[in-house]
Sequence to fold (106 residues):
Amino acid sequence: MMDPEHKVYYNDGDYIAINSHKGYYRNEFNKIYESKGQYKGKWNWASFLFGSFWAMTKGLWPQAILSLFLTMITGGLAGPIFWFVFGFRGNHMFYNKAIKGKTKFL
Fold:
């Protein structure tokens, strides 16, 4: 097995180096990649605590806008739901965006 620091992924004819994603995310991305998507990522405290703002920093704009919009129109009731969604699925959503170039809501 290759050292995670030098791992390169192959996706739809393009090689994508993971070197721009350091430490925590590189390890999570390697686990997701090696499991062929079966591993959905572990709990992410940063995405849970900062929710939509975390999503914005990772380029997950559709998820961030949707969560903010639904939280506003429900008077804040949807907020905790999205905190848990980001906490449980944040790493996998970020993997799909950063490595596969796709935006998936869950």
In short: The radius of gyration is 14 Å. The longest strand covers residues 8-11. DSSP finds four helices and two strands in the chain.
